[in-house]
Amino acid sequence: MKILMLSWEYPPRVVGGISRVVYDLSHRLIADGNDVTVITYRDGNTPYYEDDDGVKVYRIDNYMISANNFIDWILQLNFNMVAKAGEVIAEKGKFDIIHAHDWLVASAAKTLKYAYNTPIVSTIHAMEAGRNSGISTPEQKYINDTEWMLTYESSEVIVNSIFMKNELQRLFGLPYEKINVIPNGVNLHLYDGIDRDWDFRRNYAMDNEKIILFIGRLVYEKGIQNLIAAMPKILAGYNDAKLIVAGKGGMIDQLKAQVHALGLDDKVYFTGYLAGKNVQKMYKCADVSVFPSTYEPFGIVAIEAMLSGNPVVVSDAGGLNEIVDHGINGMKSYCGNPNSLADSILTLLFNKDLAETCSKNAIEKVKAKYNWTKIASDTNFTYQKAICETMAERQAKQDAQEEFIKKSNKASDITNLIAFKKSKEAFA
């Protein structure tokens, strides 16, 4: 198939989890014999066009005029996506399917759908109502409504967890059978050739200290504030522990103030944003990885940590609750509960056998369930469903039109016959 991916991020531009999903999925679809084109935003000095191992990547600038706000900026980006897609289609022909990733590309996807009579499959990676525990501002309402519009215009919708499927059905009233659960995946070779680097580790902790690791955006829904709040209890039970916080986000100053207020300045280290292989090296250096989200549609960082051989602790929020089986391939904690977090982390720190068993089982689960070969196959099947549905709808419309014409012709014949009889009687 000829597939058009619309995404506002693609490597090297990484804002959230969408970038990695689009990258890995596109390359797997290429390996399966499909033709994949990505249209995305150009960040920095990246090339406008790139053949990325078979994936045709077109990057676009936004307008030179300044946008009033973020939503206006996104709309301008969508206008340029439509223009670029038109150029590509004029040169290389129509696409079989449009795959739209989140509300950020909804307007472009809808425009291209009607302009070229091409079905949409959309992936909803997260929802505005979930991120903000409801809708309370005009901007949030606009994003929420745009999410609904994208799912309405899509022939099929993909989400990454059963939790997200239930949320989407509840909030937007979508037909349950229209929502396909296909989890995100991870490159199974992510840690090939990477072992624990003690020199790298000593930049963050002493050899005797156990590293408790958090990697992610420093925003409220990732729950890092609850992990920091759990540290006094953890240190009371296991003093040779240190929390490493890797990432950036709007809460950084607030979190540092929280650390200082708790007197944990020497026990919590903020690394800032980690790039490239440093992420994998950090996972290999950690003793426990923790993901205490208050809202999490899926949790790809947890999958990456599990593959590294690092025992994980997660909250029981959203998709994380489906990834980890408590005491089997990781540990769970009650969402938003620092005491529960501390108990699960201490269990792994004190019970080496349990930690090793959880790590082994986690690697097996990731390889079996979260590999891109299976995920791409399921996505391909969803594309086929969307195309078949569109063809069936077109055929149904055509049949209805033909039936209407036949009835109209028959009614016209009867009308003419009655008029003829009346004129004949009048003449007689």
What is the CATH fold-level name of the largest domain? Rossmann fold
Please, what is the oligomeric state? single chain
Percent strand equals 15-25%
CATH 4th-level superfamily of the largest domain: Glycogen Phosphorylase B
Number of domains: 2
Counting DSSP E segments of at least 2 residues, the number of strands comes to: 14
Tell the overall outline.
elongated
Give the SSE order as H and E letters.
EHEEEHEHEHHEHEHEHEHEHEHEHEHHH
Helix coverage percent: 40-55%
- Count of helical stretches: 15
What's the architecture of the largest domain in CATH terms? 3-Layer(aba) Sandwich
| Distance between the amino and carboxyl termini | 69 Å
Short description:
This protein has helices at residues 18-31, 70-92, 106-116, 128-131, 138-153, 162-172, 198-201, 224-237, 252-261, 277-285, 300-307, 320-323, 338-350, 352-369, 372-427, and strands spanning 2-6, 35-41, 49-52, 55-60, 97-101, 120-123, 156-159, 179-181, 210-215, 241-246, 268-272, 288-291, 312-315, 331-333.
